[in-house]
Every structure is written in structure tokens, then in C-alpha cells.
Amino acid sequence: MTEKKPIIFSGIQPSGNLTLGNYVGALKNWVSLQDKYDCLFSLVDLHTITVRQDPKSFRSNCYDALAIYLAVGIDPIRHNVFLQSHVPAHTQLAWILNCYSYMGELSRMTQFKDKSKKNETNINVGLFSYPILMAADILLYGTNLVPVGADQKQHVEIARDLALRFNNIYGQVFAIPEVYHPPLGARLMSLQEPTKKMSKSDDNSSATIFLLDKPEDILNKFKRAVTDSDTEICFDIKNKPGVSNLLTILAVVTDRSVEEWTTQLQGSGYGKLKTATAENLIEFLRPMQKRYYQLRKDQEYLDSVLKQGAARAVDASQEILKKVYDVLGFIPTF
Ligand code: TRP
Fold first, then answer.
1. Using CA positions, which residue lies closest to atom 15 of ligand 1?
2. For residue 47, what are the CA distances in angstroms to 12, 30, 74, 135, 136?
3. Quick one: which atom of ligand 1 is closest to the CA of 9?
4. Which of 95, 105, 170, 263 is 20–30 Å from 115 (CA)?
């Protein structure tokens, strides 16, 4: 009998082009987790509509993100790759968890506060209850570990709190998930304001590297990247956030250490650092982009992945959902 592996759940919103930040902060780690864990990697499209989407681009963004998942090396045969909206149990469980969540705890979520500021004309209830749907995503599959960036830690904690609260009343229904911190997690910052996280929704398009950026755009973005007024290349996040960010990118895409690069580039000046980073990144992205464009054309294949993923996730979601309905006293369907 094969031993049961711990379960991992993670997701990314298919809300536009994925960035190098998404790759380094999430996708890269997911790929390396595939050997040791049973993984569910979802495209969390229901979360995406908390901010208005244009239906046509929304649909193509979902396929784009799926093709990226596959192009970076996520294996849809061994693991579960699916669209959240294809599995009704997510919203079913989310409703139930709504009834066990408190206004107070949700009002404290930093992401809610940030997003409310950004979307002043559309502070909808979905934005507020976003962490509950995320908790449902996680708890539905008996997830043990949730690999997410620091900005999502608070949401995983809510999922834990809800699971513990529910289990306290009704017995062992949910596994208690934990945040998974990748051993070498790097957080990429904006190229224009390096004290801010690299984000796909930045108003300044020079601030962000998208995984599908063309070589010439990458070169230009790095040429324009903010560094600082002196010339010394060293890693110092506090005093040299821009230079440190470039060194981080360089190290990640070449699989070498920041120290090695700092030594190699000693005395070269920022111009050299920028072109070295751009050139290495371009080479790093090239094979992935090639696979992406091949996959993206193959609509039939992409649909078959979604179909299989949905069937498996629907199946996997039933056990815990049924248990929840049962302990709450709902009459089972006939
Ligand atoms: N909220 C996450 C983000 O914006 C995406 C997400 C939704 C997620 N459900 C999840 C991540 C469940 C991990 C597990 O990054």
C-alpha cells in the first residue's frame, strides 16, 4: 500500500497576466512540492469576481493562467488542477462557514482594508467574506499545508480558527491547516518602488515583470528600474531595496546565490547589474514561454485538463462536505 502523503492546497486568481512575483512566490515552490505531497492547485476564479471583470477577458485570463500552470511544470495527471467555479462544494461550504465567522474578525483583515481603499466604489460583501471562501477551499479537502506568500498568512489563520471553532462544537470534521513557508522563499518587489510588493495590478507597467513579457520589454523595464544614488552593489534590503531586489531576481533565475553574484559584479556599477539581470531572466523565461504558446493554442487539451481536474475535485470534495451537512443536522438528500 502506498503511504498517504500530506495534502497541499493553493490557488492563484486568474485575474490577468501572471507575474514573475507569482512565479517566484508561488508557482516555483508548487513545482518542487509535487514529489512529496498530494497537491490541489486551483485557479480561484470565484475569488476573482470580488473585483469587476470583463467577461471576455476573464474567460481568456483563466485559460492563460491554466497554460502558465502547465508551462512551468505543474503535472495535471499526478495532481489536481482545476477551476474553483467547477466545484460547487466550495460555495456550499463557504455559506456554512459564513455562519460561523464573525464580522469583527473579518473586518481586521489587512487585505480587505487595502482592497476597500483601492475599490472605493465597489466595497462588496464578497470582498468582505473573501477569506471565508478561501477557508472553504482549504478545509474541503482535508488540507494539511497551504503554501502562500506572507500577505495571505492572515487568511490561512482564519481558516485554522474556523476549523478549530467548528471542530470544538461538532467533533473532528476538519483537518487543521498550516501555512507552508518555502525554504527559500523570495519576495519580489516593484521595479519602480522597491519597498512595495511586485503586483500584477500596479498602475505603472514598468514596475512589474510579467511571465509573458517580450525580451525587449524586459530589457527596458530593467533599464528603468529604480536603484539608488550611490554605485555599490550589495544586498541590503533596508538601505538598498532596489539593488537588493535586482540581486534577488538574478539569484533566483540563475539558481545561484546572492553572495556569488555580489562578488562577481563587484565594482561593475548598476548598469551592468541591470543588464545581467535582464539577460539572465530572458533566458530563464524563454523555454517556459515557448511551452506556454504551444499549450495555449491547444484548446482541446486545456479543456481536457479542466474536465479531468473538475471531476476529481468534485469527487474529493464530497466526503467532508457530507460530513459537515450531517453533523449540522441537515436531512440528507434522497
Ligand atoms: N487569496 C489567495 C491570493 O490572492 C488566493 C487563494 C484563494 C488561495 N483560495 C486559496 C490561496 C486557498 C491558497 C489557498 O493569493
1. 12
2. 9, 20, 21, 12, 12
3. 14
4. 95
